[in-house]
Every structure is written in C-alpha cells, then in structure tokens.
Amino acid sequence: MSYWRWSLTAVRQATKAAAVLAAVFLFIGVASVEAQKKFSRMYPGSNNVRIQLINRTGTVTVEGWNRSEISITAILEAPVANLEPQNQSGTIVINLVRDNQGRAEVGNVNFLIRVPVSAMVDIETKIGNLSVSNVSGGLVRARISSEGDITLTNIGSSAVSAENVIGDIFFDGVMQENGNYRFSSMRGNINLRIPFNSSFRLVATAPSTRNISMGPFGTGSLNYMGDGRRVVGKFGEGSATLSVTNQQGSITFLRR
Amino acid sequence: MDCISCKDHLSPFMDDDLEQTVAEQVREHLSACDDCALALEEIAAVLAACHESDPADASPPNADAMWLRISNVIDADIAEQERRRLAERTPPKRSWNFTFLQLASGFAAVVVISSLLTIVAIRNYLQPTGDDIYTRTKTEQTTIEKLLGRVGLIDSPEAARERQVREQQAAIDYWDQRVALRRSQWDKRTREAFDRNMQVIEQSLVQYRSNLKENPEDEISAEMLDAVMRDKMNLLRDFSDL
Ligand SMILES: [Zn+2]
Prior knowledge:
The complex is a heterodimer. Chain A is mostly beta strands. Helices cover 14% and strands 48% of the residues of chain A. In chain A, the strands form two sheets. Chain A has an eleven-stranded mixed sheet. Chain A has a ten-stranded mixed sheet with strand order 1-4-7-3-9-11-13-15-21-17, with no helix packed on it. In chain A, strand 18 (221-225) and strand 19 form a beta hairpin. The longest helix of chain A is centred in the N-terminal third of the chain and has 33 residues, at 2-34. In chain B, helix 1 runs parallel beside helix 3, helix 3 (34-53) packs across helix 5 and helix 3 (34-53) packs parallel to helix 7 (143-150). By secondary structure, chain B is mainly alpha-helical. Chain B has two domains: 3-89, no CATH class; 143-240, no CATH class. Zinc ion binds next to helix 1 and helix 3 of chain B.
C-alpha cells in the first residue's frame, strides 16, 4: 500500500516535471520557429580559391572584392537549416542538400558571399535566384534546378555557364579568348551584354519563339537555320564559343 | 552505404542474390558514387560483350569457350591501353579484377545485365554537360563504350538514337520512382515549384515529338528533344534528394 502511494506520488511528480519540460521545449521550439538565424564566417583564401555551393531554396549573391579572404554571411529562415561549410584544400564547400537530407521542412537560406576577384564560383540551387558579380576567375557556373533568375554582372571568367528552367538569364561581361560560354533556359528571357569587339562562334537556338535579336551583332556573318529557329554565326576571329538555348523564350544581344 | 561495403556487395548484386532493401542501397550508392559505378560498368561491359558475341554459348557446357572470349576481349583491351599508356605516359587504368565464377554466374543473368545497363544509362545522364557518347569521337570513348561498340550495341546512328531514347527513358523512370518516394515529404512550395517546372518541360517534349512526327528529318527538333529529355532527367534527379 505504501509502495503504491509512493509510486503514485512519484508518477504525479514525474508528470508535473514532464509537463514543465514540455512547456520549456515548446517555448524553445516556438522561439526557434519565429527566429531567423544569422551565420557569418571568414575563410583565408588564395588567388585560385574556389567556392562550391549547393543551396536548397533562397537567394545566393556572390560578389568579387579586392581581398584574398572569403566572407560568407547567410540569413537562415525558420525552420533553420543546418549549415556546415567545409574548407577542402582551397575549395570552400557548402552543401545544404547533404547537410539537411531527410528533413521535410527547411527554411530559405539567403547567402551573401564575397570572394577574391580571381575565385572560381560554382553555385547551384533547387529554387531561388542566383547572382554573381565582379569576378574573373577560371569558372562561373550557376545552375537552378527549377525556377529563379540568374544574373551575372561584370564577369571576366573564361568558362561561364548558366542554366535554369523557368526564369531570366542575364550575362554582362567580357568574353575571353578561347573561352566557353553556355546559357540555357526553358522559359524566360536570355539577355547577353558583351563588348562590340567580342570574338566568338555562336549557336543560338530559340525554337518556339524564334525570337533571336542580334542587336548590334546583326551585321556579322550570320546563318539563319530551321526557319529562323537557330542562328549560327562567327564574329571576329571567333576564338570563344557561345552556345545559347531558350526552349520557349527569347534571346537578346546587347552592346556593352 | 560506403564504397567498401558497396564493392563487397557487387558480386551478389550481379547474381541478383541480394535482399531487396540491400540491392536498393547498392543501386542508390551506385547512382551517386563514380568510383563504384565505374567498377560495375566495366564488369557489365564485359558481361554484355560476352553475351552479345554469341548467345548460343550462354549455356554452362561452353564455359571454357566463353572464358576464352572474355580473356581475348580483356587482353586486347589491356594491350591497347598499355600501348596508349606507353605512348602518352598517362597513369594506368583500373585493372579487371573479378573472378570467372562471377562472370559465369552473371553471364547467364541477362536480366541483371539489362538492369546494369540501365545504371550505365542513368550515369550517362548524371552530368548536366552537353556532350554525350554519341557526339564524342572514337578516341574519347570510354572502355565500356568501345566494348559495347565492338559487339554492335552502338552501331548505326539510327540504332544509337533509338538506344539513346531508351536509355533516357530508363533513366527518367528511375529518377521518377525516386521522386515519387520523396514527394510526400516535400512542403507545398516545393511540390508546386516542381510541378510548374515539369509542366513547362512536358510542353516542350510534346511540341518536339509532334514536330518530329510531322518531319522526322527535323534535326533541330531532334536535338532539342534530346536536350529537353536531359532537362527532365535533371529536374527529377535534383528533386529526388530533397
Ligand atoms: Zn562507392
């Protein structure tokens, strides 16, 4: 009997404790649901540093600056994502897909990353805008699995690729000798702003709209193919290659 | 599953001897790991080569003859690699290291081979780069492609095209299944974005298929159909790990 009474008291106390604990956890939970988190870190860099980022959702902005460090700041919206950048012998690797595998709900992560001008930039996201500016390293690669705009401004890299499904692509930059440039979208507008004296071989395909506006480059040696669905041309010596495909949108050339 | 465990399982995987769940883990690892998939591709290539060279020899009594042919294929290939290596001073390629028993048992399992070829196909579309095995030159072909080519699996452009479509469809089916498994866990926004983008892709596929029905010689539509199939696979693959 006394055993039972003791036991009942213990159960009652345990229940009370559990309720208090539950309330505390609930409070923490609510607090973290409402709070944004800010992540900020600096990494020592070198001239040929490389940043490799795979985001889930959110916006990514990469800017070149006149310093050798890499600065990463991120605003993590609730439910807050796990974010664990790694420095793998000169490459800063951020993989939010891997770091949050199996989680049903993960909030947006919005990045602002500053890199040396000579850095190689390789960024990817499932959903959201990507923008890169002021870099001239060996590589700029921006890929959106589904929808979002890609904006590449003041780029001097020799290998550039941008790819999305729904969204605009804008490139503003200088084409390097023997460089390789690829832009591909399903639906949206592709606008390319390059210097008039650029030297490249072009294959531009817009099968559905046939809207390929060569602008100031219309005077070059152009070849319209497949009832205007494709333009093939050579400008100057044509040492760089430029391939542009827009399945359901337009392609427009602008003078830089 | 890690690489060591995966490679340990390759042999029973070839023999279709693994439990469903383990086999699925192996398949999953293979779709993500270059190294293990390459090992498997090489085995698959030799098996396919042997099978295709003379199906009549598939029965065990001719095992000796079959082994001889396997050796010939491998020897020729190694000799060629060796020559190239000496000429170019490139590092040696991976050696063939699997047993005759594995070969013999795998040899009979045509079903397994075709599923391996599916994995090869999936891997052909893993990288979102523009080039593929049909536009690369002979010297750029990989070992598996040369082996497949030697036994007529890659021959005329028409056959290559048909095969490519089959492979793309197999790859799409594979990622489609994985997306179907994950989809219920996605939040509303992810589901809507996926559907919206897939719809845009499907529109283009319908358009190009109808163009090609009207005019089978329409090269731009054929090329674009291929590109959009690739886009579809990439969308599926990219959302399958969410
Ligand atoms: Zn592995």
